[in-house]
């Protein structure tokens, strides 16, 4: 409770006490006057019936009794016949209790009204602050109404915290945009020499060269292809970071997407005598971008093929429910090292079992693309051995928790 509320409470208690005292005093004066009048009426009536000639004298005595001094003999006479102070107070006790209860009831009602009003105000303030924080969490711009009350300190701290968070977010967005721009610039700068190198290799191939030179050309082509993949990946990542990569939302058949993703890898799979097992029955439909979803699973299948070894098996299967569509890509290779699992989706990270031509952006790109399509991607070692990638595409955009 702040100082202002404490002062209001103290003043309210004093006002209630004064009010109760005034009510009791006024009530007692009214009761006393009423009692005196009843006694006077009784005495006059009795005198008029029994001693009519004394009526005027008795009335004069009653009128002058307020200013007359109390006679000691009169008090003794009254005490002898039972007219003591207690006798008169006993008649006032019910009235005293009634007035006291009425005064307390009035004070309680006033306090209840004040407390209810204060509690309603506190609840309203809490609801306002909660709504403000919910708007901030949802990214909606809103203004916090400032007031001077018991919540002012909390309100001020919330305002300063939100302002600092917004400033930090803006700086992070600017840095992320700068990084995306730099990546895009680097990728564009690399495209020109890579294209020139590729044309030069094609021109040399058209000439007659010996076997050793042809072997060098084949190695050079592999490196050029690797550089082209790196440039394409950097451009895609920069567009994802900048939020400029347009992803369409259409109904996709999982089997057709997996076929599209695996077609470019068929020569590699056949060369290693591997088996690609598509367990995609019955029909599985989910929403996503066909081209980039195929790119996601092409990277995952490629990773499994590189680690399954000669004669290995790559299995693709799915699970679907009203909340999400889950697609698993697994191999029967050695699986991931425990130290690599937390770092697999970091950009340019190469695990301990990575092949020599690996760049380290394929899995990072796949994870970013899955998350942009309201999904999650995780890697783990299967219970029966081998690596397993699990991609989930959620139906409701509020479920995945990806911002």
Automatic annotation (TrEMBL):
It catalyses: ATP + protein L-histidine = ADP + protein N-phospho-L-histidine. GO terms for cellular component: plasma membrane. It is found in: Membrane. Residues 162-223 form a coiled coil. Its EC number is 2.7.13.3. Residues 185-397 form the Histidine kinase domain. It holds the Pfam family HisKA. GO terms for molecular function: phosphoprotein phosphatase activity; phosphorelay sensor kinase activity. The chain crosses the membrane at residues 95-116. One of its GO terms (biological process) is cellular response to phosphate starvation. Keywords: Coiled coil, Kinase, Membrane, Phosphoprotein, Transferase, Transmembrane, Transmembrane helix, Two-component regulatory system. This is histidine kinase. It comes from Blautia producta.
């Amino acid at each position: 409770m702040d100082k202002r509320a404490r002062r209001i409470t103290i003043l309210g208690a004093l006002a209630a006490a004064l009010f109760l005292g005034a009510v009791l005093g006024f009530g007692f004066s009214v009761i006393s006057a009423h009692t005196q009048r009843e006694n006077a009426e009784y005495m006059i009536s009795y005198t008029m019936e029994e001693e009519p000639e004394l009526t005027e004298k008795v009335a004069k005595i009653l009128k002058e009794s307020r200013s007359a001094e109390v006679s000691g003999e009169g008090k003794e006479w009254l005490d002898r016949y039972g007219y003591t102070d207690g006798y008169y107070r006993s008649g006032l006790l019910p009235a005293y209790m009634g007035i006291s209860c009425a005064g307390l009831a009035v004070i309680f009602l006033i306090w209840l009204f004040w407390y209810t009003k204060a509690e309603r105000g506190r609840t309203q303030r809490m609801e306002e602050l909660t709504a403000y924080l919910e708007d901030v969490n949802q990214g909606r711009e809103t203004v916090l109404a400032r007031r001077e009350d018991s919540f002012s300190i909390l309100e001020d701290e919330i305002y300063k915290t939100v302002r600092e968070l917004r400033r930090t977010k803006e700086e992070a967005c600017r840095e992320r945009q700068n990084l995306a721009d730099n990546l895009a610039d680097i990728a564009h700068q690399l495209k020109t020499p890579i294209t020139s190198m590729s044309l030069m290799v094609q021109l040399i191939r058209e000439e007659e060269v010996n076997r050793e030179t042809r072997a060098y050309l084949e190695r050079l082509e592999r490196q050029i292809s690797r550089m082209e993949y790196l440039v394409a990946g950097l451009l895609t990542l920069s567009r994802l970071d900048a939020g400029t990569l347009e992803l369409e939302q259409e109904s996709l058949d999982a089997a057709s997407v997996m076929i599209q993703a695996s077609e470019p890898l068929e020569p590699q799979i056949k060369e290693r005598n591997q088996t690609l097992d598509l367990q995609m029955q019955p029909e599985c439909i989910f929403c996503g971008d066909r081209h980039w979803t195929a790119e996601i699973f092409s990277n995952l299948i490629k990773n499994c093929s590189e680690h399954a070894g000669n004669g290995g098996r790559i299995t693709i299967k799915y699970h679907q429910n009203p909340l999400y569509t889950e697609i698993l890509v697994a191999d029967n290779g050695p699986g991931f090292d425990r130290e690599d699992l937390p770092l697999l989706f970091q950009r340019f990270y190469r695990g301990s079992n990575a092949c020599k031509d690996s760049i380290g952006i394929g899995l990072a790109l796949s994870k970013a693309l899955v998350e942009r399509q309201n999904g999650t991607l995780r890697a783990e070692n299967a219970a029966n051995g081998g690596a397993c990638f699990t991609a989930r595409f959620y139906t409701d955009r509020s479920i995945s928790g990806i911002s």
